[in-house]
Design brief:
This protein is mostly helical. It is built from 14 helices and no strands. The protein has one domain.
């Protein structure tokens, strides 16, 4: 009896805790979500062209992820063929349709299933493996793309500070944010290629960070941080060897097209704000999405982004409706699209006997 109870606790205890935390998180952010959804009728006043612009920008952001995954799954990126797995020759890179279905299905799962990114990775990996990609290659590719995406997100706050210092005055129109996104993307590519080309620079940065962190947390050492950064750099370099430029461009494009969508959502309502300040609000909001309290950071990202936009001078009502428009294309619409993609894939890969039944 005791063993049975212990097995149940081990199997379901963590899930129960995760569901409880998710429930509490949704309860906390429910008022802000309701406030945002109350502004839904105001979307009818938005010109149709802005819906087209946001859809195009978010499509480009997702396409950059498809490209990044394809690069990681392309055999022989370093000039050598990918080794056989379980005696089966390595296949070619997956088609764009497969990449799109896998990423959209995984993206939808990460936003509706407790477990967030982990659940989405399982769904995405399952689609890619079912399409004939080796399991080991898929696991390595997804780990590398996740690391590179995280690295770009962590680099953005560093780049936001000089952007705030040299940004245009508040009177300038927010349309300059599209130019800012291009400049930041170029800097990200330069920094990324530099890090992948010269490991000594990564080592120096790691030692510097470790020295600073050691002042606050004694267990953290400069050598430890240096080795950790070099290890992660080696994983990324191995996955994208021979195509570093392409990989870093794809990762930068994913973030900057998404940021450009936020800029467009605010411009649609005539907002005047410094693009660098909007970038700072975007970066902090994306950090909320990483916190695994609610799937996809739902509620926390919306409330945090709205609050930060108000802080930088955007009127409260405009911040709410602007956030709603942006999240409509970046968060809510991809869910039914991803679910439809998953259903289409499941039907196509259904065993013949099950289909007949």
């Amino acid at each position: 009896m005791g063993n049975s109870t212990g097995t149940i606790v081990r199997r379901w205890g963590g899930r129960a805790v995760a569901l409880a935390v998710t429930g509490v998180g949704l309860y906390v952010v429910a008022p802000s979500l309701l406030t945002m959804f109350d502004a839904w009728p105001q979307l009818a006043d938005v010109e149709v062209r802005w819906f087209v612009v946001l859809a195009a920008l978010e499509l480009c952001s997702f396409a950059a992820l498809w490209w990044l995954t394809r690069i990681a799954l392309t055999p022989g990126t370093d000039g050598e063929p990918r080794p056989e797995e379980d005696g089966v020759p390595a296949p070619g890179p997956p088609g764009w349709g497969t990449l799109a279905v896998a990423q959209m299905a995984g993206n939808a799962a990460s936003k509706i299933i407790p477990g967030g990114a982990a659940a989405g990775a399982v769904v995405q990996g399952k689609v890619l493996v079912s399409a004939g990609q080796p399991g080991g290659a898929v696991a390595s590719a997804m780990a590398a793309t996740g690391l590179l995406g995280t690295a770009v997100l962590m680099l953005l706050p560093v780049l936001t500070v000089p952007a705030l210092l040299i940004g245009p005055p508040p009177a300038e129109q927010l349309q300059l944010g599209l130019l800012v996104s291009l400049i930041i993307a170029t800097v990200i590519v330069a920094v990324g290629v530099t890090a992948l080309t010269w490991p000594r620079i990564v080592a120096a940065v790691g030692r510097a960070l470790g020295t600073v962190i050691h002042l606050v947390r004694r267990p953290v050492t400069a050598d430890g941080v240096e080795q950790a950064l070099l290890f992660e750099r080696a994983r990324i370099a191995s996955a994208f060897s021979g195509r570093w430029w392409h990989a870093v461009i794809a990762a930068a494009a994913n973030r900057m097209f998404d940021y450009a969508a936020l800029v467009a959502a605010l411009v649609a309502f005539g907002v005047y704000a410094r693009p660098a300040e909007v970038l700072l609000a975007y970066v902090v909001a994306q950090a909320f999405a990483v916190i695994p309290i609610t799937p996809g950071g739902v509620g926390f990202v919306d409330a945090g982004l709205t609050t930060l936009l108000v802080v930088i001078g955007v009127p409260a009502d405009t911040a709410v409706i602007g956030t709603l428009l942006y999240r409509l294309f970046s968060f809510w619409l991809p869910i039914p699209i991803g679910a439809a993609a998953w259903g289409w894939w499941a039907l196509r890969h259904q065993p013949p006997q099950s289909a007949a039944a």
